[in-house]
Amino acid sequence: MIRFEAMVNGEQLIAEIEPHEALTEVLRRCGLYGTKRGCESGDCGTCAVLVDGTLVASCTLLAVQANGHEITTIEGLARGREPSAVQQAYIDTGAVQCGFCTPGMVMATHALLSRNPDPTEADARQALAGHLCRCTGYIKPIDAVMAAAALVRAEKEAAGE
């Protein structure tokens, strides 16, 4: 067993892990069920999280590789009990269907808007490339990215940023 320590969603997480465990498994074992198991090969995007602000497939990242780093999961985006602007945009546009792929898409959208607050539709499509969804047909998630960008810009303007 190896001692795992990381800042997860702004809080210190300490766990005993096996050297071969994927980050997805450790997060879920620690109660962060928003990070979904999908393909377990990095192809579907369902398990996407941020590690030091970079979007990663947590199923292909060994937890030991994230040891000592800052990790953000879908649970860490909310503002208290209120959804983040990105989460709200997914709700408002109807981009949440069964909800299985949604956490990964939301994390990808958050990552995109962190580096590009005014994306084009092409940017949105690129950000969601590799996120598989059987329910929405991909139009509503693209709409959600664009709506989220407008919400984030409005929040920044209201805050005087």
Number of helices: 6
**Main sheet specs:** 5 strands, mixed
The level of helicity is 25-40%
The order of strands across the largest sheet is 2-1-5-3-4
Identify the CATH class of the largest domain: Alpha Beta
Number of domains: 2
Secondary structure: number of strands = 5
Q: What is the average per-residue confidence, as pLDDT, rounded to a whole number?
A: 95
Structural class: alpha+beta
Structure description:
The chain has helices at residues 23-29, 63-66, 85-92, 102-115, 121-128, 139-158; strands at 2-8, 11-17, 48-51, 54-57, 70-72. With 161 residues, it is α+β, with helices and mostly antiparallel strands. The protein folds into two domains: 2-76, Roll (Ubiquitin-like (UB roll)), CATH 3.10.20.30; 85-158, DNA polymerase, domain 1, CATH 1.10.150. It has a five-stranded mixed beta sheet with strand order 2-1-5-3-4. Strand 3 and strand 4 form a beta hairpin. The chain is globular and about 45 Å long.
Which short descriptors sum up this protein?
alpha+beta; Ubiquitin-like (UB roll); 2 domains; 5-stranded mixed beta sheet; 6 helices
